[in-house]
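Objective 1b: paired records.
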Amino acid sequence: MQNLKQILANILHYLWSGWGGVASLFLLLASWEYGHLKMGSLILPSPKESLLALHIALVNEQAFIDILITCKRAFFGFGAAAILASASGILAGISMTTSMALRPIITFTMGVPPIAWIILALMWFANDDMTAGFTVFVVIFPIIFASAMQGMRMRRATLNEMANIYQLSLWQKLIHLDLPQVISYLFPAWIVAMGMSWKIVVMAELLGTNNGIGAAMATARVNIDTAATMAWILVIIAMLLLIEYLFLEPIKRHIERWKPR
């Protein structure tokens, strides 16, 4: 019973802590409506018109298929980059040799614009999923890598000294001391990378595929249907908010529960 009360208290506290985000959302909607009144529906449809277009789109079963396809491509590229970049970044934070070996590769990948990677991927891969997944991977890899490496280098020296005094093994230090500290650097990078993943996938779909949210937006562009375009933008924003606040943020709070509030 006590555990249930604590869980409910944590949920209420988490929901109450998000009131600032709700306020900013209403401010955004007010600005959107003001822009619509100034520029008209052709340039900027109102929130009501966009929601109506979203309802019309979601009535069609193909809309859910497109959403699932885009989700699959985004998660494929993001998941591969999150695992490999986090692991290699942690290793680079420990080993200067690894850091120096990977630095030219990271610099090169960061220097190439995402649109260039999309064009190259369209020429390299015949598979639409590989095109989007590869582009996401290569673009967000440096972001996650740099955060993981910086997190390892910013570890508290006093905790490492304590671990040496108690003769903790390398594995114990990594799991119980290093990773909880690195997570504080990794989670913001993961959130940014997730947002970029969706943008890159939609861009790749818009340029070179016939399914997914990007392809649906390309169809709306051809039909000069601004309301439908805004509706799909709302879908992308809603998915990102759900992933961040219902998945990533609770995990972050659970892992960082050792931190003083």
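Objective 1b, second protein:
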Amino acid sequence: MKTKKVLKNSVDIVMTLALLCLMAYQVTGESLHEWIGIGMTAVLIVHHFLNIKWYGSLFKGKYNANRIISTATNTLLLASVALTAFCGMSMSNHAVPFLYGMSDMVFARTAHLALSFWSFVLMGFHTGLHLPTVTAKLKPNKAVRIVCATAFTVLAGVGLWLFIKNGIPDYIFFKTHFAFLDYDKAAVLVFLENLAIEFFFAFLGANAVRFIRSLSKKDEVKKKLFAPLVCVLIAVLIGIIPGMITPKSGTEPEWNVPQNVVLDQADTN
């Protein structure tokens, strides 16, 4: 059982790293992007094989709020990743060119762009849902808890700010059909930005679990009930206020249009 647990954790880490690489197209380039996508698809299959018991438990037991959110997130994530992989293989020029044209190209390009970011968002939220359980054994003192909560809230706010600044809301809601990427940005900065964005959604997931657990605790412990909500609210304010006060250029807010960007060449073929 210990070996299986180590294997599960290793697979989860590999999937997270692969996803971060997939979201850094301007760093990896088209060919490597495709091969990483194929690799992640394979690892994802292994992940579900290792967690096959989850499917058997879907129709057993009662569904509380935490289980409903977790099941819904897992289902949406699976569907999103599967469709992203399908659309990606339909456009493949390097890894699996024999699958090129499996679906309509316009649909494949539009869906692949939007669903890849949905997968990114849902993966972060999915990770966050498990963080309280992973860190349950940690018993930091009050001072450490306050420092960590403050740092995590600020980092999450920065992640939301980057999420908006890089125009990702337009991608996930199908408002933009082409990826605008800054090829001049340093690779390390691209990965750090993606990591911060991912952290924001993990932060949301972790605080959602904390809030739900607080609801079920005894009255004397419920004084911490609104702490997760306050942290999320502060993070959201940190994320949206810079965009609201940034001077506008033309008719579009600067925080909705990434600066010094280049149209993703894969979307012009």
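The chain has one domain: 2-267. The two ends are 48 Å apart (CA to CA).
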